[in-house]
Amino acid sequence: xxxxxxxxxxxxxxxxxxxxxxxxxxxxxxxxxxxxxxxxxxxxxxxxxxxxxxxxxxxxxxxxxxxxxxxxxxxxxxxxxxxxxxxxxxxxxxxxxxxxxxxxxxxxxxxxxxxxxxxxxxxxxxxxxxxxxxxxxxxxxxxxxxxxxxxxxxxxxxxxxxxxxxxxxxxxxxxxxxxxxxxxxxxxxxxxxxxxxxxxxxxxxxxxxxxxxxxxxxxxxxxxxxxxxxxxxxxxxxxxxxxxxxxxxxxxxxxxxxxxxxxxxxxxxxxxxxxxxxxxxxxxxxxxxxxxxxxxxxxxxxxxxxxxxxxxxxxxxxxxxxxxxxxxxxxxxxxxxxxxxxxxxxxxxxxxxxxxxxxxxxxxxxxxxxxxxxxxxxxxxxxxxxxxxxxxxxxxxxxxxxxxxxxxxxxxxxxxxxxxxxxxxxxxxxxxxxxxxxxxxxxxxxxxxxxxxxxxxxxxxxxxxxxxxxxxxxxxxxxxxxxxxxxxxxxxxxxxxxxxxxxxxxxxxxxxxxxxxxxxxxxxxxxxxxxxxxxxxxxxxxxxxxxxxxxxxxxxxxxxxxxxxxxxxxxxxxxxxxxxxxxxxxxxxxxxxxxxxxxxxxxxxxxxxxxxxxxxxxxxxxxxxxxxxxxxxxxxxxxxxx
Length: 642
What we know:
By secondary structure, the protein is an alpha+beta fold.
């Protein structure tokens, strides 16, 4: 192999070096025996900078995890990945499903035999499971993933451009993007897949250039895992590069395919076996097991069986991609500037072949997502991309930071060569605008997610105040645990201090009978709970009791001064079946009511006040100015929320 040795103090290849070849420094004698300090000193300055940047990105991910997302995020898919990771860490492939199974079903889970099949493949959950086994927390996995994303961006940048300065800029742009910062603190697949995609491209290009087997095998491994996790993303982004490699490698075409296949073998075998265990067919992914109409293309679509039909057309797809791109302009550090720089570099033919194919792959990716209804759902029906970023476009960051970074460096150099003082002024203005916009987007994202997290923290605090080991039935739509809030989710063993179950009617009696030692409650969540930072996110928990008979007497006691000192009036709202009855009570007196429940529902004659004792503090609190309603179903209620 021909190696171009740069001049001292330069990181650029000599003119004779073909575009895309990476410059290598001559190895000093005895370098293999250097210690850690010597190896660090021998590293190029750009590589040391990127190493520090990766460590800072890892620290930022853990910090955001504990400050902004301590209860998980508004993207309820996090709960699926975390449950899957905890299940794998306990040595099981699937969470168990006790009877009645639908009463404990997690978000987007489906009951198969005696277990739940979750929507995604086990590769990404396995990363977090390793962290749970080693440290008891997912923090190390989050730190490693984002650190690897920064590092692999640098190495791929060197491979694509031949310049360490350009590669370091690309890594910086990736690390400072609000989309990466926010996603780095979340237990999801988008950032791990970005690492795998770049690792695949890096391995193929480096192995092809150096005629080495190991990088190509690694590329096959990364390709197989990425394809098992997000196959559509892999096909769209890498198809142009794959065609280019086949066309431009006539002498090594089969050599590349052979060693790529060796790397692909392990993830393919694992995928086939897990598919077989999950769906009964090695060729059927668990993604489509829950709802067959959750698929690509236009037409009527559903996310889960009880979901209403959504008519998804070409106009919806175009609007969805447009919304994602609009957000990416701010959620990617310098998104608009990078797009312009990349287009300019391509027009001036300043890109290497692999870089140009990655850029083309980014365009194919956007065109392909016009027909993906999940992106439309996230943008238009749910709207969560406004708070956690346009996460479906995370793979587009790969060509954006590499091609945009290269275009920025060459464009900046040309501008300075033209008129240095004017060029410095223009470059300073652009950098200031990029920093300002990035700061505004990141600050807004943190503010919004803190508001959403505050709702969950208030709900969690209310539920944690319940005595003993409570059983909490969750009355929410859709009928899954972990939605619309990750607070109401069980672990894989279903043996937490608080056990959650979906409120389903008759099945609730079976759940009550199975857990006679747990006091039962009903949790009612606002219909728009956590839909946005400004939506009503109230919650109410009600004490439940189980009685049987043709006519069931129920005694309800409200203690003296059971409400706050500012309360002027209170009412009990009694619910039987579909009928409710509101009964006024004295907020300052101990009141006992006897209620007769029968098949005819509730009416005023069924309620009798058995005793009422005036509180001694009546005269001190009667003139309070504020008003509050106290609600109760069979017993007094508590409420939480905004």
